[in-house]
Amino acid sequence: MIDLLLILDPLERPLRALLEWLHVTFDLPWGWAIVATTIIVRTILLPLTVKQIRSMQRLQRHAPEMKAIQQRYKQDKQKQQEELMRFYRENKINPAASCLPILAQIPVFLALFFVLKDFEREVLPRYPESDLSWLYIVPRITQVLSEEPFAAVVLLILYATSQTASTLLMSSTMDKTQRTLLLILPLVFLFFVVNFQAGLMIYWVTTNLWTTGQGLVTRKLRPAPVEQPKRTSRTPPGGDGTKARAAEPAPAAQQPSPPRKVKRKKKKKRASR
User: Most Cβ neighbours (<10 Å): which of 153, 156, 192, 260?
Assistant: First the structure.
């Protein structure tokens, strides 16, 4: 635990300073300062988010080809993985890119946990009149959810709903088994997050709502896939031949030739003797 505190200290101190700056500069209650911190963190992570979206779009675009590889080598899992990795390299696909924003938030999540744990001892004495409640739902953001039944029920419902919505929107290109697992995990996490501070759940719900909005915008801006024409044995190697045929001038309609007149030779009558 001591080693973890030393590792997170360089992140915990600026996070605490950011919360105090938002509280003092914009007169935000501490709960809304956490919401604003979440938005700032997600804005900083936008480059990783763009990589995530592009990677997911590539995965969706090449999904039929990857499924064909999986079917071709379904009896040989090692060969299947080798072929998929080769396919990823050739098409510049990074499957791990979809996890980058989540991985980048884990240190922030842990740092906020320790900030809230010592908040009433290290921060609150400097602001004795400040309000620790949030939206008349959470009495104190530093309190563990299990100690506040009403706040726990509301925040857990918001967490489960927002987590499920963000998963449905951002995992459309995932394997069916992986997607089912991600949909089940929020229900499993309910037994653990109930022991987190209310402020930590505010952060988690806010970032889920951000991801949900991001998924909606991505779906709106994503161009509709263009269906490629089916190739046949008559299709020229340069493409489907549509443009070439369109560019060629249509042959002129042939006029029917007039019927030929056949001259019949007249038979000479034999002179009568």
Answer: 156
Return the closest-CA partner of residue 30 out of 125, 132, 120. 132
Backbone angles phi, psi at 80, to 5 degrees: -60, -45
Residue 113 lies in a domain: yes
Task: Name the token pair of 86.
Answer: 């080769």
Domain that holds residue 182: 2-221
The count of domains in the chain is 1
E-assigned strand segments in 48-121: none
What does the pLDDT profile of the chain (273 residues) look like in tens digits?
Answer: 556 666 777 888 999 999 999 999 999 999 999 999 999 999 999 998 888 888 877 888 888 898 899 899 988 989 999 999 999 888 888 877 777 888 889 889 999 999 999 999 999 999 988 999 999 999 999 999 999 999 999 999 999 899 888 888 776 555 566 677 777 877 788 888 889 999 999 999 999 999 899 888 877 776 545 444 444 444 455 444 444 444 444 445 455 555 555 555 555 444 444
pTM for this prediction: 0.74
